[in-house]
Specification:
Structural class: alpha/beta
Largest sheet: 8 strands, mixed
Radius of gyration: 20 Å
Distance between the termini: 21 Å
Oligomer: single chain
CATH topology of the largest domain: Rossmann fold
Shape: globular
Order of helices and strands: EEHEEEEHEHEHEHEHEHEHEHE
Number of helices: 9
CATH superfamily of the largest domain: NAD(P)-binding Rossmann-like Domain
CATH architecture of the largest domain: 3-Layer(aba) Sandwich
Strand content: 15-25%
Length: 315
């Protein structure tokens, strides 16, 4: 694999390869875990080497019969302007059907994570009461809307009034609260969910997980997608103080890595494409211009200074 600068473009694509100019890349909280040297489900970033991550770009040179110049492709070599590949793991996408960056958000791994987490891991049932933490985020907002499409009652948490208003007015959920204004998550959830919670989609961990356990119905399901509250912790963080309630309530708690469930890809693409075309799914993007400002976009993930999927426009 080679990384090319703008002035390196004369003939870098060798036999069997393509040269791709990135148009879009995303930044995502999971990347924070790759900045630690330790055991994980994904290899840590290496010092002195470019980061990587989801990207969409245009084929500008092709020596590979499967790709033509002008094709748009989805890859995993973000954090650079150009890259070459033999085509393995690179997927052609239709940038005329939807904007190219959609394949990094609603039609990409973000939407796929929401779809798999709810349907396969959470076993979403029509009429469930669903609580989603970080509900205005890239994954959380899609989770909320898929649950509403299944006629569920949906409650969300977010970090500002503007985000709460968007969740209710645009995403169409039933209720939401600003966690900065709540002293006791458990009490707030008991107020908003008097009949208990059937499914909790956890993006936060910490006090949100503890509050959800307090409010879960017997045989409830907890889907652990992320725990952003602990990503920047300098030491071990305590688990929920009420973890013993998992036994009495017979709760099921399951984490997941979306790449383990690629067998769901066709169903996801079919359903999500239909929802997008019929305008049943809405989403937001925070767009940063230029590779040089990508680090700022990444840092903003942990300050709450973003809306929906955080994208960097490269071309």
């Amino acid at each position: 694999m080679q990384v090319w600068r703008l002035d390196d473009l004369e003939g870098p694509a060798r036999d069997g390869e393509i040269l791709v100019r990135n148009h879009w890349m995303f930044v995502d909280p999971y990347m924070r875990g790759r900045m630690r040297d330790g055991k994980s489900y994904v290899e840590p970033f290496q010092l002195g080497k470019p980061l990587d991550g989801g990207c969409v770009g245009e084929v500008v040179q092709s020596q590979n019969g499967k790709f033509q110049e002008g094709d748009f492709v989805l890859g995993n070599l973000g954090w650079r302007n150009y890259w070459t590949s033999d085509g393995k793991g690179v997927i052609k996408v239709d940038a005329k059907a939807v904007p190219a960056q959609t394949y990094l958000s609603a039609l990409g791994m973000t939407g796929f994570t929401a779809y798999v987490g709810l349907n396969k891991i959470g076993e979403l049932k029509q009429g469930d009461t669903v609580f989603v933490s970080a509900a205005s985020g890239a994954v959380g907002s899609i989770v909320c809307q898929i649950a509403k499409l299944k006629k569920c009652r949906v409650i969300g948490s977010a970090g500002s009034k503007e985000k709460i208003d968007w969740l209710i007015d645009k995403a169409g959920i039933d209720d939401a609260f600003n966690y900065h204004e709540v002293d006791n998550i458990s009490a707030k959830l008991a107020e908003l969910c008097p009949n208990g919670i059937d499914l909790y989609f956890d993006n936060v961990g910490g006090d949100h997980l503890e509050g959800a356990i307090d409010t879960m119905n017997d045989f409830g399901r907890i889907v652990c997608c992320g725990m952003i509250s602990s990503y920047n912790a300098k030491g071990p963080t305590p688990g929920p103080q009420n973890i013993s309630m998992v036994i009495g309530k017979r709760l099921r708690i399951q984490g997941f890595i979306v790449r383990d469930h690629m067998d769901q890809t066709d169903a996801f693409q079919r359903d999500m494409t239909d929802w997008i075309r019929s305008e049943k799914i809405v989403w937001r993007e925070t767009i940063t211009e230029g590779l040089e400002d990508a680090p700022k976009a990444f840092i903003a993930l942990f300050t709450g200074d973003k809306r929906g999927k955080s994208l960097v426009k490269l071309a």
